[in-house]
Write a structure and sequence with these properties.
Number of helices: 19
Shape: globular
Helix content: 55-70%
Distance between the termini: 29 Å
Amino acid sequence: MWLRDYLTPLDVGAVLGQLAGLARMMGWLLVLPAGLGWVSSEFLVAGLLSGLSIVALGLGYWGRALLPKDLHLREAFVVTALAYPLFALAGAIAFLPVAPFIDGFFESMSGFTTTGLTVVDVRGLPRSLRFFRAYMQWIGGAGIVILSVAVWNATRPAGFRFRIYSSAIESERVAGSVHASARQLVAIYGVLTGIVCAAFLVIGMPVEDAVIHGLATISTGGFSPHVENIGHYASNPAVLTVTMVGMLLGATSFTNYQRLTRRSQGDEHHRDPQVYALAAVILIGTSALFALEGRPWHAVFDTVSAVTTTGFSLDQPADWSPTRKLFTTLWMMIGGSSGSTAGGLKLMRLIVLFKLAQWTFRRSLLPPEAQVPLKYAGTVIDTEPLRHLLGFMVAYLLLLLAGGSALVVAGFAPQDALFESASAIGTVGLSTGIADASLPTWIKLVLSFEMWAGRLEVLPVLVLIYPGTWKLHRRSR
């Protein structure tokens, strides 16, 4: 029998109801950049953003009656997968005054997925769109942080399986309820954003730059209003230091920040191994780049930027040596912590793989009857979550190679193609110069697909495009 024969019908009403809720949220979020456009006398952009806000709010409130009381797993995947391209399509409309629709779609997908690849010339952007680019990344980062709480927990997760798959390291409710925990995560995200923006202001960065870089830093997005990116401030150690601290804050699991608010509950026993792994990877990467080129600031900054998948750069990756590109590709693939705004394979998965190799070696030295559980952070890992982990990593690497192969077919050098593909699927944003307005449309769509699939960790996208998913029937409530 085919897989589709085992699937229950998809509840379209549930999907549309959740999308209506997201549209309503998006409508309210667009009020801020629209208002900035009106204040800045950028009437065309302001009018488009205002129109988008009104349409989104109208659709959102019109669809409130469709909102179901519960959301099953497959429908949650479909909603999550559809949200990003729909938001990107809306964002593309806002860029029509300055760029073709496909370029606006690419820019918006890059923004909402917190990637940072760009095909738009930032020098000619209106003030409201410069803000909108970073604002998209901030929204996307917030969405990734609360995704596990707002969606995954609502779909009855099955223990550690989802902690390995999803963007969160914990499946338990770290606050009194799903909604309370989501509000707490948003509050933490907002506080960290405020701290980073304030720090930029204190060290003398102009207000607009401080806000834009603050939004792009804590979201590990990497958009900048300058052609030189953060390299515009390459000679200012204070700016680079604040940027690195902000990138590390964004790439650390937000459940760690939640634990800091409830230390009296004995959370000292739940130390996150990813924190130590992140420090180790940065130390190794910095040492390697320093040994290669001998520039300490570039070595540490570039490593932090790549591992946290932020994508800020002090100079142009197109000018880097092949060895430096190779190292950076590896750091981009590793990525930051699960439960953070960072992309990549995620440190938690790599730690579990290392422990699996260690467990396999130890198990081979013991008699068959010996009980040797495989654990991560004190939690026993069963066979099923390991299958999910390996399946994800295979899918991720295949998509990485497929994207790189497409770029080679388009005429780019293999190493640059692999670098760009790793940057797109890892939601990093570093570019060897491939991401450009002159790219063929089909390559822009390939990179957009990689950004989309990489941000959602592949599985929801596969569920969405699988034909058997669309077995339709309205589920009774």
